[in-house]
Amino acid sequence: KAQKELYFNNPMWPGEAHSLKVEKILFKEKSEYQEVLVFESSIYGKVLVLDGIVQLTEKDECVYQEMITHLPLCSIESPKNVLVVGGGDGGVLREISRHSSVVLIDICEIDKMVIDVSKKFFPELAIGFEDPRVRLHVGDAVEFLRHAPEGKYDAIIVDSSDPVGPAQELVEKPFFETLARALRPGGVLCNMAESMWLHTHLIQDMISICRETFKGSVQYAWASVPTYPSGVIGFLLCSTEGPPVDFMHPINPIEKLEGALQHRRELRFYNSEMHKAAFCLPSFVKREVKAL
Ligand SMILES: NCCCN[C@H]1CC[C@H](N)CC1
Fold first, then answer.
1. Catalytic residue among 140, 159, 162, 205
2. Kind of pairing, strands 53-57 and 46-50?
3. How many angstroms separate the CA atoms of 187 and 157, rounded?
4. Residue 142 CB: number of other CB atoms within 10 A?
5. Are 223 and 236 in contact (CB under 8 A)?
6. What is the secondary structure of 170-199 as a DSSP string?
7. Residue 230 to residue 73: CA distance in whole angstroms
8. What's the confidence (pLDDT) of residue 288?
9. Whose CA is nearest to atom 7 of ligand 1?
10. Of 76, 112, 143, 144, which alpha carbon lies 20 to 30 A from 285's?
11. What atom in ligand 1 is closest to the CA of residue 64?
């Protein structure tokens, strides 16, 4: 039978599109915030799509979930209180649970349908919700951070979709200011930071805001994700004023964490060498993204 294909083009990456062969559409509904689609692809396993943008595939989700989690958590001694903004698929929670020093994992996801769909179709990711340290808050993270106690968290991970639609506010300065306030001195933030091939202006804007808002260090890292536009995704690592954080040399290496490598599922992408390599930047990025 004729294989259906889905094309992923978007104003966020004009002039190009990525397509995936579809075996079967498994779910498609509109939530209060966005269209939620799940389909079985021919070569990447199941795929989660929000408003026409690929969020994750079973085959390569490990890159993003492992890097966005361990880049910050392996950069500080025994993280205890962690906050996840977004991340409703549960993948980041699965990765945080490898760190036995963590005692509290707050997660604030705006769209309950993403959580329910992940539990139904992506148990390998939704397993993260089963960790007893997890406290789920369904709602707007802008509101949540406004009421968060000052200096509460050692680490905050902003696992957001693109800044079009629900995640728009998550790249604006007021939000970064609430993130900085909720972190302890020497606390760390890791943000999803788009593509060096497509979004150097957006990255520059985020870095400028973070340099003003976070008085510690601000570093850009990246990794290869085949099913994201241009095949890469970036991460912005920030630390607040206080004990200095050297993101490029993990002082809390995952290889030394008791049980972290086998916990529930072995790591498929992250390790301490990939951690260090992630901060090596191409010359054009060094030129185009000042203050790196
Ligand atoms: N929690 C799954 C990943 C969400 N972040 C992605 C970053 C890149 C975007 N183009 C799509 C969402």
1. 159
2. antiparallel
3. 11
4. 16
5. no
6. GGSHHHHHHHHHHEEEEEEEEEE---TTT-
7. 27
8. 80
9. 161
10. 76
11. 3
CA of 242 to the centre of ligand 1 (A): 30
- The tokens of 83 are what? 């906050």
What's the pLDDT score for residue 164? 85
User: Could you give the C-alpha distances from 239 to 25, 251, 283, 284, in angstroms and in order?
Assistant: 42, 14, 24, 25
Q: Is the CB of 159 under 6 A from ligand 1?
A: yes
Q: Is the ipTM of this complex over 0.85?
A: yes
159 is catalytic: yes
What predicted TM-score, i.e. pTM, was given to this entire model? 0.96
Element (H, E) at 54: strand 53-57
Buried b (16+ CB within 10 A) or exposed e, 255-272: eebeebeebeeebebbbb
